[in-house]
Amino acid sequence: MPTIGPSLLFAAGLTLGVGAGVFYPRKTAVPTPSNGQLPPPPPEGGRQESRGLIPTASGSAVLAGGFPGPTPDVLKRTAYTAAYDRRLRHPAWTAEHLTQTSLARTPPPSAPNTTPVPLEVARGADTTGQSSVVVKGDRSKSTFMEDETVPEFFRAKLQDYFKSGYDRGHMVPAADAKISQQAMDETFYLTNIAPQVGDGFNRHYWAYVEDFCRRLTSNFEDVYVFTVPLYLPARQPDGKWKVSYEVIGNPPSVSVPTHFAKVILASRPDFSYPQKPSSNPNEKSFTSPSTIKELALGAFVLPNKEIPDEADLRSFIVPVEHVEKAAGLQLFNDEVKGKSRQLCAVTQCQVIVRRFDDTRKQLGGGKQSPGGRK
Description:
This is Endonuclease. It is built from ten helices and 15 strands. A hairpin with a 2-residue loop joins strand 1 and strand 2. The longest helix is centred in the middle third of the chain and has 11 residues. The N terminus is likely disordered.
């Protein structure tokens, strides 16, 4: 069984996850061509200038301007990491690491030699949310934002979603980033957003799946979640397979995925082996990173359309390889896949239906904003 620690996902090169093993870097050497050296890699970010000669009828033309792309914008946030697709103008993938501590309503226990928070203050903070002790983010203080770290030419705009008929759907949900206001605010960048059908999907079944991912932390120490927008073909009446999708904005700029995938790797102590407690005083319920872990892996692909509340989550299970092939990614290497059990074989894969938005409407909460709740 492999050994996986709580911070390994982000410490082991998650941001290089496109085309490379995330948890276990491959050691296979790349063969050098017999006729010379390997060509130089493309410059990072496409910023370095390179020159090349292009033969033409009247002589050679000089190509200057650097590596043309495609260039993914790899974004490291407080609660997640993402790769932004400049062509589609939404994330190519997002990744997050969920634990009970990261999702906690209140700060972790005080470190040694610090003054503990009085019990009555802590209780009041957890129920009223008005004490400075609580560090969780307040969603009402967050607003959707264009991401100025992306060149303006390739940037998704707020106007693109206006009256589009689609919600601004979080890939990493705001509810996963309550650790601080900054962490929550960062989930509202449009580089973490993709167009989603609102009623029946973003505001309902997709939200149930996000909640399912969070609830996994009650059975697993560490839950790693990839969210991947997909463009999958559909068979036409003439028997041919075609990929068809809408593009929103004026001019049309932001592509609307046909499907979305959640790929989940969960780990917990394997009690067939001796256990070692964590040395972190704030994580007393965790085991040491050197403890042998049981791995569970699952992938779900959901269509970007209204899904009935009674739909069985297990009906959306697909092999992880199907997601990787469709998205052009390598999320996990063969060793992790081979040593992981099917997620739904070791835990109950079931969504909990919560129609919070319907309750708000009944209480006079009003209509959704033009870009949707999320």
